[in-house]
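Thread title: Can someone regenerate the structure for this chain?

I was given the following input by a collaborator and told the matching C-alpha cells would be attached. They weren't. Posting the sequence so someone can regenerate them.
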Amino acid sequence: MNKKYSILFIFIISIVVVLSGCSSPGSNIIADNNDDIENSQTGNVVIAIKRPTTETTSDSGVKAQTILPESTNVRLRIFNNLRNITHDIVIPDTGLISEEIKLPVGTYTIEAIAYSPPYKNVHTLGKAIGIVVEANINSAVNITLEKPTCNMNAYIYDDANNKVNISKLEAGKVFYVDYTFDLKGFNQNYTYTRFYTYKEGERIPAALDYNNTTSNSTVTLSSPLVEVETILNIYARTNLLDDVYGDIFYVSVPNAPYLGDIPYQITLTPFEGGVVIGIE
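Best answer:
Regenerated them for you:
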C-alpha cells in the first residue's frame, strides 16, 4: 500500500511588516539599487522576527513549532513590476530582531524563506501580497510560513495501455509518478525539479530524472534490480532560482530526509526470470 506523503506539521512564523515614512535611530537601512530611490517618496518596510520558545497546537491537535530549530536565516524577496529586492536576516536565538528596508511608495509582494546554510535547504516558506508602502503611514501584515508539500502517485500501464496504480513493482521496470507541488503561493515558473530514489539509504543515479516543473506534472523513473523485497524511497527537489531569490534554494519534498520526514515509497520485488533490459 502506498505511503502517501502527509503533512506532519505546519510551521508558522509571524513576520511583522510595518510600513512607516521615517527611519528609527539605529535601524538597518537597505536601499534599492535603482537610481530613482533617492528621488522618490519612500517608506520603510520594518521586518521583525522572533524565534518562539514554545510550541503551539493546531486544530488537529498536532504540535507545531513555529520556527524549526534547523532554520537559521530568513531570505526576503520584496518585489513588484519595477524592482526585485532580496535581503537576508539571521534569526536570533533569543529576543527580537528588526530591520528596515527603504522602498519607493508603491504596492509590493513579500516572499519569505526560512532556511539553513550553507546549502540553503528550505524548511518553510510563505508570502504576502498587496503590501502598500505609503509615505508617513504605518501598517502591518503577518506572513505565515508553511512546509512545502508534494502529492505523488506511482503507476504503470497494462497490456491494454490502461493506467494501473502500484504500491509494488517488479524490479528493473520503468514506472511513472504523477505529482502535484504546493509551494505555498510561490511562482512555479521560477523553479525546476529533480527526482531522486534511494534503496537501503543508497541513492540510485539511474532513477534520477529532470523535469521543468509545473504544479501538476508526470515524471518517468526506472527501478533498480534487487535480490530481496526492498523499499524504494522517492524524493522530489525543487530549486528556487538564484536570478530571482539571490541564491539557489533547495526545496526537498518531503521536506528533507535529514529532518525525519517520510518519503513516498513503493516496494520492489525480485525479478522472476527471463531477460530484463534496464539501467542498474
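The longest helix spans residues 242-245.
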